[in-house]
Specification:
This protein is α/β, with parallel strands linked by helices. The radius of gyration is 26 Å and the shape is elongated.
Length: about 375
């Protein structure tokens, strides 16, 4: 029975044997060819030796798992092809298919963690020393061109720490050593450590001190903004946990844009909380118009406003392209411009707000944790 968690569609047969040695394969273009006939697919092995080699792996006491990143619109055909493979081989095989480019796609190792979790539940452990990964996206190159459009299969095996084979080496026993490379833009270990060290020496603002610089009030509005996946919600939760202990300025609610289908509902919720004399911490992506509306809503409720802008400097932005982070996407290598709403505070002359408490804006540097995983990928 097929199941789904986050963006991963998976199949675990009840008779699967959780042997310590694992042979993990990319599926399409490594084991089989996706050949369609009208509305159905046919089972066509990539090499004549695929079936015998897979059966041989099972006979030698290893288990087989398939793992591939695919487009969601192909999932029906991929499932059908997988079922044809299992029917032909007559052996239990686990399959993991990631449908989005995120932390569950290669070369990130979150699917490997799902595999280890499955083994843990069966009171078994995977042996990395005797496990392998076979895939065709190996970063192979020639003098004039790149043979593979990507190197994520090789990078995944590298990040997990298991032996990697190309399909030709594994199924055809090719002896020729292919020339290959990871991305030319990869940041080496020395530069990476230097960037991390600089980042760790940055002094973070103390939010309670910043709030005390605002006029004394029974309620406050804290707006945390920045680019997607930069840690806004995490910071908001930390502030809320400390609020009752350290701040002692009434109760506070956490409102995140992730819980609302449109901005108007989020703004109405904040207006409702402030109207009931309850402070609000809101995390929202840096949209100039929306942030300006939140400022106006707080002004109407006579709430002092602290805006925390999470900033990413150029070095960290570049580093985040290659270091594995527990977020949905990789960062673009660019600086985010100063938000237009900063100008609004000095230019707004509406008499209705002449006695409104001040608005304070601070920058909060992004803090990241050191990771050993890189985004090793290139494309044509």
């Amino acid at each position: 029975m097929w199941k789904e968690v986050d963006s991963v569609i998976y199949y675990i047969p009840t008779d699967f044997k959780f042997n310590p040695s694992l042979a993990v394969f990319n599926f399409v273009d490594t084991l089989v060819i996706l050949k369609k006939k009208y509305t159905t697919v046919e089972l066509v092995y990539k090499y004549d030796t695929v079936k015998s080699r897979l059966l041989d792996i099972t006979e030698k006491g290893a288990s087989i798992i398939l793992y591939q990143c695919i487009n969601l619109n192909e999932i029906a055909h991929i499932k059908e092809l997988f079922e044809l493979l299992v029917k032909d081989l007559q052996i239990p095989i686990i399959a993991f298919f990631s449908t989005l480019r995120n932390k569950y796609s290669k070369p990130f190792t979150n699917v490997w963690k799902l595999i280890e979790l499955c083994y843990f539940k069966k009171k078994s452990v995977v042996s990395k020393e005797t496990s392998i990964f076979v895939g065709h996206k190996a970063g192979r190159i020639t003098v004039k061109r790149k043979i593979d459009g990507s190197c994520v299969d090789r990078a995944f095996a590298f990040n997990v720490g298991i032996t990697f084979f190309t399909p030709g080496c594994f199924f055809l026993k090719e002896t020729m050593v292919n020339i290959w490379q990871f991305s030319d833009e990869i940041i080496n270990q020395t530069c990476r450590r230097s960037i991390i060290d600089k980042n760790n020496r940055i002094t973070l603002p103390i939010i309670i001190d910043e709030l005390h610089l605002l006029p004394k009030s029974d309620i406050y509005t804290v707006i945390i903004t920045g680019c997607p996946s930069c840690g806004k919600t995490t910071l908001a939760k930390k502030i809320r946990r400390k609020w009752d202990i350290d701040y002692k300025i009434g109760t506070v609610a956490h409102v995140t844009e992730n819980d609302f289908s449109d901005f108007s509902k989020l703004n109405d919720t904040i207006d409702n909380y402030l109207g009931k004399k309850k402070s609000v911490i809101c995390d929202i992506t840096g949209n100039n118009y929306n942030i300006t509306q939140l400022v106006k809503t707080s002004m109407v409720n006579k709430s002092p406003i602290l805006i925390i802008e999470i900033k990413i400097n150029q070095e960290i932005s570049k580093l985040l392209n290659f270091i594995k982070i527990q977020t949905s996407d990789s960062y673009e290598n660019r600086l985010y411009p100063k938000f237009v709403w900063a100008k609004y505070f000095t230019q707004h002359k509406d008499l209705a707000y002449k006695e409104v408490p001040c608005v304070k804006h601070i920058e909060y540097p992004l803090v990241i944790n050191l990771s050993s995983e890189f985004w090793y990928e290139y494309s044509y």
